[in-house]
Amino acid sequence: MLLTTGAAMAVKDLPGGPAVNQLNLHPPVTKIAADQMWLHNFMLILCLGIFVAVFGVMFYSIFKHRKSKGAVSANFHESVAVEIAWTVVPFIIVIAMALPATKVVVAMKDTTNADLTIKATGYQWKWGYDYLKGEGEGIGFLSTLDTAQREQSDSGKPEAVDNYLLKVDNPLVVPVGKKVRIITTANDVIHAFMVPAFGIKQDAIPGFVRDTWFKAEQTGDFYGQCAELCGKEHAYMPIHVKVLSAEDYSAWVAGKKKEMAAKADDPSKVWELAALMERGEKVYNANCAACHKADGKGAGPIKALDGSAVVTDADKLAQVAVVLKGRLDKGMPAWAQLSDTEIAALVTYTKNSWSNKTGQVVQPAEVVAARK
Length: 372
Prior knowledge:
β1 (about 115-125) and β2 (about 125-135) form a beta hairpin. The chain is α+β, with helices and mostly antiparallel strands and about 375 residues long. The chain contains eleven helices and ten strands.
């Protein structure tokens, strides 16, 4: 307990993320977020003024006209002036609140004329990003909590780092000064895409499409999290947005496309067991080790892969079906977003690792057939 408390006290404010003992909203880096903060402060001041006025009059009346002072209650019926006042004044207050609020809400929903459109798909428990329109179109990847931080959480011994449980392997990258439209949806349960510094929060609902937008006015790293209780690992679903200059963003796009081209595999290629094992280990560590552990033993309700009946089944396509479709009743999400070669390598790796010495090899062409 003392170790955990000491680590927490050593943590400092995270630029673009939460601050220690934070009381106010995040420092805004978009006009929408700045408008939201202004609206928040305006409403707070207005409500505080109403509170002081109402309770001030009430307590003054109680004190001034108390019985011990010999006050005698007045006896009158109707007052046109009072009735007009308590009708007109609240109306003016409501209008004063509604006009700026409506302006901000309408602006929040205006996703037209976006320079960049990105689909954010929620998975249990990670985010998938697909660049649909604008510079970077065609890029797609998964963003998962850093494996080391997940292991620290599982062990109960977190390191004193400012971005604890906010570090990901692949952050969402966008250019500064460009309007970015975010389309949200989900693959399994309801998630929510939220980045406080941008002033955005949008539910990601399976079978539905929602959208929001932002235009970052400064470069840097900005953090958020899934804001909808989406299951037992809800806390392990961070959002990291990296805002780059136009030149740096173009360089990132070029590099990412080269990387994707290098990873593009011919699904008709026949692989050797050793090559699949090497490729599968990387896929497993990047996507599966967080839950099933590096040694395949699982943790808590997560089933072990070492010695698993599904993994060692003589029908090697039984495990392929589980990977493609998932088993939500067992807490296993679908991994159909992985490429055919990645799934073939992953399944082959688990079938021939630890005590699972099945000798079975799954080829990408078999995964292609299983998708149909």
